[in-house]
Amino acid sequence: MVMVVSNDGPGSVDLLYTGPTTGKITLNACATCTKYPGSVFLDPKKIKACTGPASKYPKATLLLPAGDYHFLQKRAGTGTSSAGDTKSSKAKIEPGYSYTNCLYVTSGF
Questions:
Q1: Model's pTM, two decimal places?
Q2: DSSP states along 6-51
Q3: Rg for the chain (alpha carbons), in Å?
Q4: For residue range 51-61, what is the model confidence (pLDDT) as tens digits?
Q5: Is 62 strand, coil or helix?
Q6: Which sign does the torsion angle of CA 48, 54, 59, 64 carry?
Q7: Torsion angle, CA of 75/78/80/82, rounded to 10 degrees?
Q8: I need a surface site. Which of 35, 57, 83, 102 has the fewest CB within 10 A?
Q9: Interatomic CA distance for residues 10 and 43, integer angstroms
Q10: What pLDDT is stored for residue 58 in this prediction?
Q11: Is-contact 7 25, C-beta < 8 A?
Q12: Coil/strand/helix, residue 55
């Protein structure tokens, strides 16, 4: 299945994934992107990440077989994020669908 991954954050980001297949991609920094204020845990409805024109964001396309996946994103150090900032997530990739995944950075609590 197709998964398009975008980077709406300052600094490059490595995305590692494992499931029926394993791999790693590196997305370049988004030159015009910044850290979003607030925390996704406090009020996720206030975060308007990844709403700009699709051409704005560095992106990569993954071709993944169906199955359960674990993802780990690891940010490079910049003036707005610390080297090694990480976030993990899980996804079930099902036949017949295409997916998008947009990575972004929020400020702390």
A1: 0.81
A2: EEESSS-EEEEEESSS-EEEEEPP-TT--PBSS-TTT-GGG--TT-
A3: 14
A4: 888 789 999 99
A5: strand
A6: positive
A7: 50
A8: 83
A9: 22
A10: 96
A11: no
A12: helix
Reported as a single tens digit per residue, the pLDDT across 85-95 is: 788 999 999 99
Give residue for tokens 């975060």: 47
How far apart are the C-alpha atoms of 48 and 103, rounded to whole Å?
12
**What tokens were used for 68?**
């359960």
Rounded Cα distance, 70 and 91, in Å? 7
Q: How far is CA 49 from the centre of its chain?
A: 11
The residue type found at 31 is: A
Two structure tokens written together for 38: 């607030």
The amino acid occupying position 10 is P
Residue 87 near residue 9 (C-beta atoms within 8 A):
no
Which residue type, as a one-letter code, is found at position 71?
Answer: F
